[in-house]
Amino acid sequence: MKNQQWMRPIHTKEGKLVIAHPHEATFNGRHNAVKAKTLIILYQLKDKALSLAELVEATGESYNYLGSRIGKWVEWKYLKREIKMGANKPVFCYSLAVRGKRFVRYRLPLKRKLEYLAEISRAHREK
Question: Which of 47, 51, 59, 67 is the most exposed, fewest CB within 10 Å of its CB?
Fold first, then answer.
C-alpha cells in the first residue's frame, strides 16, 4: 500500500488537477547509478564543490555522459552550480543541494549505496 502522506494534488503543465504519487527509482539503469555515485561523492565531501573534471575522476564515469546529465541534475535541484576560478579560466563547480542530500540519505537503498561505493573504489584502484 502506498504511503498516503506522499500523495497530494498538483496541477500539470496543462492545468489539470491530478493526485501525485511517489515515484520509486529502480536503480536498474545507468543514469541512476551515475547520479547516485555523483551524489555520494559530493555527500561525503560535505559542502565542497567539485568541477566536472574532478567529478569524473572521483566517480570513474565517462566525461561525456556525466557532462550530459549534470545540467539536468542542477535543473532538478539535486546539485547547485557555482562559478569558481580555475587555473586559467572560470569553471562551473557543483555541490550537493538539499534534494541531493535527501536522495542519498533516504531514497538510495543501502545495498545499492554499498555497491556504488565498491565501484568507485575499484575505479580508483584501476587508475
Answer: 47
